Amino acid sequence: MDTTDTNKALAQVLARLDAIDARLDQIVDRQKKSDELFSEMTPILRDVMGTATTRLDELDKKGYFAFGREALGVADRVITGFAPEDVRQLGDAVVGILQTVRALTQPNVLEIASQASEVLERSEQAEPLGLIGMVRATRDDDVQKGMAVMMDVMRHVGRAARAVRDEHRPSAADEKKAKLAGVLGPRKKKALGVERQLPPTVAPRAAAPANLGPPAACAVPSSKPREVAAVIDGVAFGADGHLVDPKVWTEEIAVKVAAVQGVELDESRWAVVRFARADFVATNVSPNIRRITQGTSLATKDIYTLFPKAPARTVARIAGIPKPAGCI
How does pLDDT run across 188-245, given as a tens digit for each residue? Predict the structure, then answer.
């Protein structure tokens, strides 16, 4: 390497050293400024922290933090106690709520409330009034004005109550269903809470009622005329929930009565109902459980599977025939 190249290399090194030196000077200068800023801010920060601590202590003594904790508890109960739909409805009603609050906080309304509260505070000093005293009191203009206001308030309350009642009034179909349920009694529950199914090999058959012979002597129906307890859709029911006139029976009526009894009519149940209906038409006597088993070739346990509670009476109600008479 000649002298010229060496000089160039040294010049480059010196230039880099000068740049590094300038950079170090900048860093040192910034560090000095940071130290000066920290020195100036330390007293200020100390004062701020002291003031903040004192202020927070005052707020704690006044109960702000305790209030905040209770407010969070209230918010938690609101969140867990109301569904999103409730909050949405509340949001829709916020305008009406604010208008009501604004109306109640008007100076004249507050003045009336204040005077009313003063009267209530002096209620122990009030002398009892008899009927004549009340009549005399109504001669006072202020009393008459107050009575007029109260009557107007009661009128609006009654109007609002009627609107709420009409809004929640059940439909005509629901009223008919409830009325029918009241006549037929409470809905029958499925045995043990589970609806049992017939074995696949068991199938009822509709036997001819004439081949069974006459019904038992103890099953003779009463000739006493039946009283009408309720009329639903033009159909009269007795107090026992049975049709007053079996001739008006239709399969549509059977479906409605079965629904109230908690029975879903499938082919197996229809076979039993139709047998009971046909047997009554042929003998003018409602079949009991024994005759139903004879006419359908179903075992007694199978009948109870299809109609878990009081099967003979349930079948009679659905078939539109009188209640079977019990043997003595």
Answer: 444 333 344 444 434 444 444 445 655 544 444 444 556 777 888 788 888 888 888 8
Name which of 248, 262, 242, 259 is nearest 174 in CA terms. 259
pTM given for the model: 0.39
Phi, psi angles (nearest 5°) of residue 196: -85, 145
Q: How many residues does the chain have?
A: 328
DSSP 154-191: HHHHHHHHHHHHHHHPPPHHHHHHHHHHHHH-SPPPPG
- 327 flagged as catalytic: yes
CA atoms within 13 A on the CB side of 28: 6
Quote the CA–CA distance of 242 and 196 in Å, as a whole number.
26
Q: Look up residue 159 and give its amino acid.
A: R
The catalytically annotated residue of 55, 222, 327, 328 is 327
Based on DSSP, count helices (H) and strands (E) in the chain, helices before strands.
12, 2
Instruction: From 225, 197, 207, 229, select the one nearest 306 (Cα to Cα).
Output: 197
Q: How far apart are CA 279 and CA 285, in angstroms?
A: 7
Look at residues 322, 325, 317 and name the one whose alpha carbon lies nearest to residue 183: 317
Question: Burial level of 60, CB count in 10 A (0-12/13-18/19+)?
Answer: exposed
| Cα–Cα distance measured from residue 186 to residue 194, given in angstroms and rounded to the nearest whole number | 18
